[in-house]
Amino acid sequence: MYKNLAAVLAAACFFTPAFSQTAKAPKPQEPLKVAFVYVTPISEAGWVHQHEQGRLAVEAAFAGKVKTTYVENVPEGPDSERVIRDLARQGNKLIFTPSFGYMEPTLKVAKEFPDVKFESITGYKTAPNVAVANARYYEGRYLAGIAAGRMTKTNVAGYVAGFPIPEVLQGINAFTLGMRSVNPKAQVKIVWLDTWFDPPRERDAAMTLLNQGADVLAFHSASTAVMAAAQERGKMAVAYHSDMRKVAPDAQIVAVTHHWGDYYVSRVQAVLDGKWKPDNFWGGVKQAMVRAGDFGPKVPQAVRDEVLARQGDIAKGKLKPFTGPIADNEGKQVLPAGKAMTDEQILSMNFLVSGVQGKIAK
After folding, report:
1. Is the peptide bond before 17 cis (omega within 30 degrees of 0)?
2. Residue 11: what pLDDT?
3. Residue 10 counted as domain residue
């Protein structure tokens, strides 16, 4: 009897039930929480619209693995610091802050939350848990300048500009160089806003430039107000950030659009894979982050073909918008003939090229 009992007990030691009511099922992995901070309200076009498309691309790529959230219309400064900190406290492990004025608040909050990763979009300062990324917007600006130079009848373009930071100066200068590459008589007039988003002021600036003889407008601000002004006055304009033909179906000659989805998806994937690093990324036409296209009905096929051909040259590295000779608008040589600007020179740009009427706002 005891022999048989011993055999039963020994056999039991090697038996593992297929299911036990008392065994705990493995805990499902929590989705990665990812947050976005937007400097303006979400609208149908513009800077924030493009980043919202990037967020939606993340949701589509990682269904069930990632949970995203956003806060819109957050002013740069103390408000943004508070919002970024709140998002970190809420358990978000990756936070995107796409506005230049969010850079310092992002760095400050990042020190308090070393286990959270931050992406400072358009910033330039990194930290162990802060990456930076930006796009070579100036490449698209140069291409838009070619279209504007071909289309203008007055040889005057207007440029509504946000702040006098290098990124904006790059855009003004590249646009002017693009215009003058096909139309040496072209001039570009500037109105400074000292804000990224103020539709009434953007409209007023556009009207001022149109009253000064501009028949094509470009802008570096976050709304569609400049496009609407051009449409109202029967003039032309270059859309920025997004295709804006819905607002200006007749006025739009071309759009310089920005595409963040691939970058955002890659950065989320890096976090999920445990491979995220505080990189410094600067992509352009070659990386499909910047694109000129979405031509309006007024643009002849020959002009479209020319712009797209030059876009192909930029993608291949055959065309670099900031190649000498380049002089500033005070007559000083900036770059000799045949020499291309380095990235360091482009990133620290602090002058306006010949052909720009105006000064850098103080």
Report:
1. no
2. 41
3. no
Residue with tokens 């491979």: 275
Alpha carbon distance 89, 106 (integer Å): 14
Q: For tokens 């691309």, what's the residue?
A: 57
In the three-class reduction of DSSP (H, G, I as helix; E, B as strand; rest coil), residue 187 is classed as: strand
Residues 139, 162: Cα–Cα separation, whole Å: 18
59 — phi, psi (to 5°)? Answer: -60, -40
Task: For residue 267, give the H/E element and its range.
Answer: helix 261-272
Pair 328, 351 in one domain: yes
H or E segment at 19? none
Largest Cα–Cα separation, the chain: 111
Do 105 and 205 lie in one domain? The reply is no
Q: CATH number, domain at 278?
A: 3.40.50.2300
Which range marks the domain in which residue 150 is found?
Answer: 137-257+290-357
Predicted TM-score of the model (pTM): 0.86
Instruction: Determine, yes or no, domain membership for 118.
Output: yes
For residue 278, give Cα distances in angstroms to 2, 143, 305: 68, 31, 39
In a domain, 7, yes or no: no
Cβ atoms of 97 and 121 within 8 Å: the answer is: yes
Strand locations in the chain (E): 32-37, 66-71, 94-98, 117-121, 130-135, 156-161, 187-192, 216-220, 236-241, 252-258, 280-283, 290-293, 326-327, 333-335, 356-357
Q: Among all chains, which residue has been given the structure tokens 């380095």? A: 342
Q: What is the pLDDT of residues 270-305, one digit of tens each?
A: 999 999 999 999 999 999 999 999 999 999 999 999
- Separation between Cα atoms, residue 143 and residue 136, nearest integer Å: 12
Q: Are 270 and 317 within one domain?
A: no
Is residue 278 within 8 Å of residue 128, measured between CB atoms? yes
Shared domain check, 247 and 296: yes
Task: Quote the DSSP letter at residue 282.
Answer: E
User: Average pLDDT over the chain, rounded to whole?
Assistant: 92
